[in-house]
Amino acid sequence: MKSFTPSLGLLATYIVGTQAGLRFPCSTLTSQRLDPAAQPGALPSAHLHMIVGGNAFNATMEGDVAERATCTTCQMAEDFSNYWVAHMFFKDPKNGTYHRVMPQPVQPLLGGSQGAQGGLTIYYTQFDLSKDNLKQNPVKSFPPGFRMTVGSPTVTGKPHAGLSYQCIQGGNRGALISTFPTTKCNGGIFTTHHFPPCWDGKNLDSPDHQAHMFNTVKSEYFDAAPACPSSHPVRMPQVTFEITWDTTKFANLWDPAKDANPFVWSFEGTAAGTHADYMFGWKGDALQRAMDKSECFYDGCGSIKKQAMSEANKCTVKDFVRENIDGCMFAPTFHLFSYGVLC
């Protein structure tokens, strides 16, 4: 396979012929200024995140997350991992106020996954989306306590390959680009984050939360993963997040002919600073069983228990930060809500 079709309309047809990994929805667990990977213990962290997954999520997370979690917002009921991204905002070009852009509910995938509330789509691919290559390329699950990030809020210019934006128009995702669209998107803005798949085999984390991994991603697509280098020899599942941000409600508040792109991340910065965080939390050997199964796609790989999204949506965590993040806001600092004020 060379690329993943951007057409939403063709998605169901495409999936029928692909058999190499997990794909499932997770509803939003919470949106708070918490970041136990990059800023463990910080309460609050520097900027707002949208978080999905298990209810062990907290300002500090060490050890086996799955042992502490009792529920998850993900369809795969044995996945108590946490996945999070910076939150998107609309910055009104008329008065400079900020308004939170909500993630659209993940559209029904396969296997009775309708009913997600916000959230994102998760992929764990073994090689690419059309083959697993397990005989030449065995995949090892992440160990308990593992975490990683991809991208960085301080990046400027162009993000690393695999971190992309698309403007959804008429049911089509449109071209893959490396920055916010400059036109109105009548279906929202679609963002993708591909994580690195090669581990050093030793460290559960690293000071920059990335050095223990090697990023083989060279394109924006679900392409075949090349061999891992000797420095990071362990091939792990290729984790990817997809999110559709509902920018449509702001369409009448800006004019592309005279206004610059009004969408920003909660860390402000630039579009190149898009980033995502992952903390492993699958129960027991559930993920390893799935990755060991050839021609496994979406359905739990024949061994993972699934739950209805109506059940997943019941999973919550408390509001640790106690911060009003809705309505219109002024944010005079670099990181939104450090001193944000409701207007």
TrEMBL record:
Question: Pfam family of this protein, just one?
Answer: DUF1996
Metal-binding among keywords = no
- Domain of life, per UniProt, equals Eukaryota
InterPro entries tied to this protein: DUF1996
Transmembrane stretches in the record are none
Q: Which UniProt keywords apply?
A: Signal
Q: Which PANTHER family match?
A: DUF1996 DOMAIN-CONTAINING PROTEIN, PTHR43662
Identification of the protein by name: DUF1996 domain-containing protein
